[in-house]
Design a protein that fits this description.
The complex is a heterodimer of chains A (424) and B (245). Chain A has 424 residues and is an alpha+beta fold. Chain A has 16 helices and 12 strands. Chain A folds into 2 domains: 2-47 and 275-422, no CATH class; 56-236, no CATH class. With 245 residues, chain B is an alpha+beta fold. Chain B has a single domain (22-244), classed as outer membrane lipoprotein receptor (LolB), chain A. Mean pLDDT of chain B is 89; it is low at 13-17.
Chain lengths: 424, 245
């Protein structure tokens, strides 16, 4: 019977074309928008994790409370032994120390005066040990548009927007002025070894990156660290796993009243990421629900129109003795087939568009000027296996639901008045 | 009903009938004590941080309200650091890098060496009468000294604090306490001035505690080890060349 209905669908285009088009468009939009949203949000989370939060982050309690101000005077002391302890207790994570710092960068002119200056956001990472994986994690080699990674003490990387603004080039000297961990004036001159473009406005505008040993000397932070970041060796943030190690670590210091005791915070609880992650889930669910509701209403109407058009056909079939339930059943099988065809077409187009958007993306660098969020300047979609069914199933359900509602009319037909209705 | 009204209005009427002296005259006398043609000051700053306490010693020269020069003498980390203020410009010299950097804009609101003083606080040498309109709003006894309470509202744009409340010793015309407010009305800093000494024909506080209300801690003690007024200061002191000497 399915074969028979399938042939009928193919031969009677009036019966199938409009629903297939509607389903295809709906499925396409659901897949594409979900893939796009997922891609953008995944990029934001990934960039935020790599540059700011890690999958988990250890700070002193006092530092964590004022983290936005980068209060290095409240940094973790004995950071090396704490890092070692984290490596031993949580071997599934890579642990790295970082120091963030703020201050003024001044570029000297030939006369020893100043040719320009600007506020800078400093990041100190482990370049020189070669074991930290930070260069790869921050994708610095690809971000280098000129010069090299720091090779020796007092080498520095600078964001390309900053370099342009101060008219700096490789080999130039810049002077950093800020505060040490204990509040003294921190002055240090660096040589620019490389200029970087991360494609993240917040990073490219005022960033300077130095080796952590230079920052420690400059900021009086010997064996101290503002933050110790943990990255899952699987390289993907897993909230449940992060929660487990957060609870296990924090349990060690639960009774401590020392405001400088370390505290671990998972990615989801930093930088308002919880609301962002919840938004992603909520938006994805909303797409599907709205899609099913709208499609159902549209297809219900399409079914009603089809029902009117096929009024005679159903009448004749009833007159020939076909059971009402049987007609209703064939109508639903027909809906399943049309829904499947539409969903397959929509899924193919949706996946293709998502893939194209993943490869090429949309450059929004002109729109995010001045932004402080870890927002990629090229927005890309992301293909995930769930896209294969996220549009398909609702497409099918919407079609069947629409026909189930519109098909109820069959049961209202009276056999006694059929011949009169058909004017036989 | 009448009695209640009288009870409520009596203090108000009484206060308004009190014959406060002219506020302008008071701050003029304060200016005469606190400002001079030139000043040479040796001082010690005790900065109470959350984790440690630091002492920073310096020697400062100032002339009028446009020129000042400070050289830091201790500790070792700060030794040789110099600051020069000419008009509204401020330069800092670091011997470690042999660089002179000019500070401007929001950087002037930053803390000086982790203390509760900002660069703007350090640079501000103008007379109160040039910056504020004053009115007396009450009296209070502080550490046994009777004071006028004055409310100062800025009459020029370029002031660090839009409003001040100062407690002025009624006999010596030296402020004993100050509260400094932002334009929004938020209390930004408190200062307590103590150890008032007679130097020549003026009274002067030899210790000031600055408390940045936006920071934790006990604040910063600014202690004058010595102060000389109206001494001749060589012109080269107030030049950029003196930073590198």
């Amino acid at each position: 019977m399915i074969k028979f209905i399938f042939k009928a669908i193919l031969r009677d285009k009036n019966r199938s074309l409009l629903p297939v088009i509607i389903i295809s468009i709906g499925v396409f939009l659901t897949i594409f928008l979900s893939g796009f949203l997922s891609g953008v949000m995944t990029d934001v989370i990934d960039q935020t994790a790599r540059f700011q939060t890690g999958h988990v982050k250890v700070m002193s309690k006092a530092y964590a409370e004022n983290e936005d101000q980068i209060p290095n005077d409240l940094a973790l002391l004995k950071a090396d032994s704490l890092t070692q302890a984290l490596m031993t207790e949580f071997p599934d994570y890579n642990w790295v120390q970082r120091i963030r710092f703020g201050g003024l960068v001044d570029a000297p002119d030939n006369a020893g005066g100043s040719k320009g200056q600007g506020p800078s956001a400093g990041l100190a990472i482990d370049f020189f040990s070669g074991k930290s994986g930070e260069v790869e994690r921050l994708n610095i080699v690809n971000a280098l548009i000129e010069g090299n990674l720091p090779q020796k003490s007092k080498d520095i990387l600078i964001g390309f927007v900053f370099a342009d603004k101060l008219k700096l080039k490789i080999g130039d000297t810049i002077t950093f002025m800020g505060s040490t961990m204990y509040g003294s004036l921190a002055f240090e001159s660096f040589t620019i070894s490389g200029i970087v473009n991360f494609g993240v406005e917040a990073m490219d505008r005022g960033t300077i990156i130095v080796d952590i040993s230079d920052a420690r000397r400059m900021l009086d932070m010997e064996n101290a660290s503002g933050e110790i970041l943990g990255f899952s060796k699987k390289e993907v943030y897993n909230n449940e796993n992060a929660n487990l190690i957060q609870n296990a670590f924090n349990a060690h210091y639960a009774q401590s009243t020392n405001e400088y005791a370390p505290v671990m915070i998972k990615l989801k609880e930093q930088n308002n990421m919880a609301s962002l992650l919840d938004y992603i889930d909520a938006f994805s669910a909303m797409f599907v629900i709205i899609f099913v509701l709208i499609m159902s209403v549209v297809l219900w109407n399409t079914g009603l129109i089809g029902g009117l058009r096929r009024y005679q056909e159903f009448g004749i079939r009833l007159a020939l003795g076909e059971n009402k339930s049987h007609i209703y059943k064939t109508l639903l099988i027909e809906a399943v087939l049309i829904g499947t065809i539409g969903s397959i077409v929509g899924t193919i187009f949706g996946i293709t568009a998502t893939w194209l958007m993943q490869v090429y993306g949309i450059d929004i660098s002109g729109m995010v000027t001045g932004g402080t969020m870890m927002m990629p300047t090229i927005m890309r979609a992301k293909f995930t296996p769930e896209l294969l069914y996220i549009g398909f199933i609702p497409g099918l359900i919407a079609m069947v639901l629409g026909n189930m509602i519109s098909g109820i009319g069959i049961y209202k037909r009276e056999t006694a008045t059929l011949f009169k209705e058909l004017e036989v | 009903m009448k009695k209640i009204l009288i009870a409520i209005l009596a203090p108000v009427l009484f206060t308004s009938m009190v014959n406060f002296p002219d506020a302008g005259e008071i701050i003029k006398k304060v200016d005469e004590n606190m400002t001079a043609k030139t000043q040479v000051i040796e001082s010690k700053m005790i900065i109470y941080g959350k984790r440690n306490t630091r002492e920073v010693e310096s020697k400062g020269y100032s002339e009028g309200n446009t020129k000042s020069f400070t050289e830091y003498l201790a500790p070792e980390r700060e030794k040789g650091t110099k600051m020069l203020k000419l008009e509204d410009k401020l330069w800092i010299y670091s011997p470690e890098t042999d660089r002179t950097i000019q500070l401007s804009g929001h950087m002037l609101k930053q803390s000086v060496m982790g203390s509760d003083l900002s660069y703007e606080d350090m640079m501000e040498t103008r007379k109160l009468t040039e910056m504020y309109d004053a009115k007396v709003i009450g009296e209070e006894v502080i550490d046994g000294r009777e004071t006028w309470i004055l409310e100062l509202n800025a009459k020029v744009e370029d002031v660090s604090y839009d409003k001040r409340k100062i407690w002025v010793d009624q006999e010596r015309y030296v402020p004993l306490k100050e509260e400094l407010f932002a334009k929004s009305g938020q209390l930004l800093k408190k200062t307590v001035l103590s150890e008032v000494k007679k130097i020549g024909n003026r009274w002067y506080p030899m210790a000031i505690n600055y408390k940045d209300m936006l920071k934790d801690g006990k604040g910063t003690d600014f202690i004058l080890l010595s102060i000389k007024f109206d001494e001749k200061i060589p012109d080269y002191i107030f030049s950029k060349a003196s930073l590198k000497k």
